[in-house]
């Protein structure tokens, strides 16, 4: 499964089982799109010049890319999983599984999505174009992972957090690996947390149809594993922050992220799909908290540099 559909978790997060979905006058971005976009936003924010906010045009460009690539991932996943989806009540109504559209029509639609995503990618520098194109192998192969390993959430993490590399290179022209790599690994750990939680919703169906997930691998030890992933995430964020001279607001946000994750894990009931959904969806707040901390931390860099320079100038 994963945020791109099928098996353990799905690309178009739905309401918890048994709960009706109320139509809203204003559409909201699905959780999966946020979780794909936020690592991009973190990286763009960290790459901004000291004392400056992140470049809003780049944020908007990556937002469009996140919507398009998540949609393409949904299409690819539904194509791979149409036979599995027929066997699960919650996914049986998907167009491919229900026979409403053909595989050929899906290919045409996918081609359109990828063409638009390519247009977004071509707006970036050459380094970022190559780096972005390199992620396509993960996008295509990820849906197969739940057939061969109990760790498809790890592959989803490698895929979903590629923007942590791409955002920095889009601003700076290339990756500073001392910042980008720990940020990327922190994002992967984050994905292992929220996607394992989500996978627990479908574990009964997954056992019946032979789909693997970390939820089935960890079983009753899930909270211990999630705690370890959360600690690794926080370490990665601290290392990334230190390597780009982040300031107090950033580390305050990291602490808030840690508290949020601790609360998620402590109160999680892995046998209640409704609770798993609630905890999964709350990770949008985790990502936004960190982004706000990055922006404020970067703005404080100017104030700190002025404080250092003033005594020197008065001599």
Q: Could you please describe the fold and organization of this structure?
A:
The chain is an all-alpha fold. It is 70% helix and 0% strand. The protein contains 16 helices and no strands. Helix 1 packs parallel to helix 16, helix 10 runs antiparallel to helix 13 and helix 14 (248-267) packs antiparallel against helix 16. The longest helix is centred in the last third of the chain and has 31 residues, at 283-313. The chain is globular and about 55 Å long. Mean pLDDT is 86; it is low at 5-27 and 308-315. One of its GO terms (biological process) is ubiquinone biosynthetic process. Pathway: Cofactor biosynthesis; ubiquinone biosynthesis. GO terms for molecular function: 4-hydroxybenzoate polyprenyltransferase activity. Its EC number is 2.5.1.39. The chain crosses the membrane at residues 114-142, 154-171, 177-194, 225-242, 248-268, 280-299.
Task: Kindly list the characteristics that best describe this protein.
315 residues, mainly alpha, transferase, transmembrane helix, UbiA_sf, UbiA_prenyltransferase, transmembrane
Give the arrangement of secondary structure elements.
Elements: H1 31-47, H2 56-80, H3 82-85, H4 103-121, H5 126-134, H6 136-141, H7 145-148, H8 152-160, H9 163-172, H10 177-199, H11 203-209, H12 214-218, H13 222-243, H14 248-267, H15 273-281, H16 283-313
Helix pairs in contact: 1-2, 1-9, 1-16, 2-4, 5-9, 8-10, 9-10, 10-13, 10-15, 13-14, 14-16
Protein name: 4-hydroxybenzoate polyprenyltransferase, mitochondrial
Pfam family, one: UbiA
Cofactor: Mg(2+)
């Amino acid at each position: 499964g994963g945020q791109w559909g099928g098996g353990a978790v799905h690309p178009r997060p739905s309401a918890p089982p048994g709960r009706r979905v109320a139509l809203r006058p204003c559409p909201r971005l699905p959780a999966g799109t946020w979780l794909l976009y936020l690592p991009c936003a973190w990286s763009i924010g960290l790459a901004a010049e000291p004392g400056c906010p992140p470049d809003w045009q780049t944020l908007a460009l990556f937002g469009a890319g996140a919507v398009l690539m998540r949609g393409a991932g949904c299409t690819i996943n539904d194509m791979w999983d149409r036979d599995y989806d027929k066997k699960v009540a919650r996914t049986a109504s998907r167009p491919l599984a229900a026979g409403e559209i053909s595989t050929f029509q899906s290919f045409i639609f996918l081609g359109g999505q990828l063409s638009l995503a390519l247009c977004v990618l071509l707006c970036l520098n050459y380094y970022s174009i190559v780096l972005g194109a390199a992620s396509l192998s993960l996008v295509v192969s990820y849906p197969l992972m739940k057939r061969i390993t109990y760790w498809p959430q790890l592959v989803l993490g490698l895929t979903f957090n590629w923007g942590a590399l791409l955002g920095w290179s889009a601003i700076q022209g290339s990756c500073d690996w001392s910042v980008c790599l720990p940020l990327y690994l922190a994002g992967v750990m984050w994905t292992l947390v929220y996607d394992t939680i989500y996978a627990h919703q479908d574990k009964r169906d997954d056992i019946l149809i032979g789909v693997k997930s970390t939820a089935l691998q960890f079983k009753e030890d899930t909270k211990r594993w999630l705690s370890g992933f959360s600690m690794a995430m926080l370490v990665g964020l601290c290392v990334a922050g230190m390597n780009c001279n982040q300031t107090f607001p950033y580390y305050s946000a990291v602490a808030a992220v840690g508290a949020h994750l601790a609360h998620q894990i402590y109160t999680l009931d892995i046998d209640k799909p409704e609770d798993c959904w609630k905890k999964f969806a709350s990770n949008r707040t985790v990502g936004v908290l960190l982004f706000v901390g990055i922006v404020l931390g970067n703005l404080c860099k100017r104030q700190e540099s002025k404080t250092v320079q003033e005594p020197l100038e008065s001599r």
